[in-house]
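Troubleshooting entry. The earlier prediction with adenosine-5'-triphosphate gave an output that would not parse, so I re-checked the input for stray whitespace and re-submitted. Clean input:
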Amino acid sequence: MLSSNEIGIDLGTANILVYSKNKGILLNEPSVVAIDSDTNNVLAVGTEAKNMIGKTPGKIVAVRPLKDGVIADYNMTADMLKHVMKLVSRKIGKTLRKPTVVVCTPSGATSVERRAIQDAIRSSGAKDVHLIEEPVAAAIGADLPVDEPIANVIVDIGGGTTEVAIISYGGIVSCHSIRIAGDQLDEDIIQYIRKKYNLLIGERTAERMKIDIGYALITHEKEEIEIRGRDLVTGLPKTITVSSYEMQEAMKESLLHILEAIRATLEDCPPELSGDIVDRGVILTGGGALLKGIQEWICEEIVVPVHIAPSPLESVAIGTGRSLTIINKILKAAK
Ligand SMILES: Nc1ncnc2c1ncn2[C@@H]1O[C@H](COP(=O)(O)OP(=O)(O)OP(=O)(O)O)[C@@H](O)[C@H]1O
C-alpha cells in the first residue's frame, strides 16, 4: 500500500502535477514562478504566477523555469518545488516528510538533464527519487497494459516535448522525442500574427487562440476570434479578427513535424509488433491531444486507429504515481 509520503510528480514544461495513489491528484498548477528580481524572493507559484506573465511591473518577473521538458533555470525550479511541497502538505493536512518521489523525464533528456531533475527534487526535501521515462509514465497513466508483450503506442504532446514511443513488456521498443509541442504552436501563432498583421501578441493570447479556435489539419467549418495586441507600426493597442483557417496555416509546419515523429516511430516497429498496432491503434495524450481535430487528422494520415487517453493532462502524473507500486515490488524482491 502506498502512503501519502510516496508521490509521483509530472514536472512538465507547462504544468506541474503531484499524484498520490491513495488521494489522487494533489496538485495541478502551471509551472510558473513569480520572483522579485531585487531580492530573488519567490512571490507566487502556479496559477497566481501565471496570471502575472507579461503583466508585471519591472521588478517582478514571472518565469517558466522549465523549457523543452527539462530544467532551464535550476534555482528557480528548486524554489518552485519547495513551494509545491508546501502546497501538497497543506492539501494533505500534514507535513510531507522526506517523501519517496517518482518523477518523469523526457526520453530524449541527457544524463546531465536527468541528474538536474533528480537533484532539484531532492533539494525540495525528498528522500528517494526515482526517474521514469515520460512515455512509459503516460502509458501506465492511460491504463495501457505496458508489461504485456504487446505493442502499446503512446503519443504524448506536452508543452515542451512530443514523445512518441512503442512500449512492450515494460520497456521502450522504439521512441522519438522532439522539442516541438504546445509551446511551439503558441510561438508559431505569435510569429504568424506578427508577420501578417504587424501585431505583437503575448504567450497567453496565443495559447487562448490555439485552445479556442486551433484545429489540426482537417476540413472544418470556419471559426473566428477577436484578439488584441500592440500594433508594431503605431505602437498602439489594436483589435483584429483571426480565423481558424489562419491558425491552421500558422501551426502547419510544427504539426507536420509531430506527424513525422509518429511515422518515424511506427517505421522502427519490429514486424512482430506491427499487427498489434493495426488492431490496438495509437493513444494520444498530453495537452496537445485536446487540440481540435487532432485525433481525426492523425488517424487519416497514418491509417491506424487513434484514441485519446481518458485524462490527457493527467496521464503522466497518474503513471508516475502508479509506477511506485512497481518500484516497491522490485525493492521488496531485492531484499
Ligand atoms: N484544449 C487544448 N487544445 C490545445 N492545446 C491544449 C489544450 N489544453 C492544453 N493544451 C496545451 O497543452 C500543453 C500542456 O500540456 P501538458 O500539461 O501535457 O504538458 P507538460 O507535461 O507540462 O509538458 P512536457 O511534457 O512537454 O514537459 C500546453 O501547450 C497547452 O497550451
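This one parsed fine. The two ends are 17 Å apart (CA to CA).
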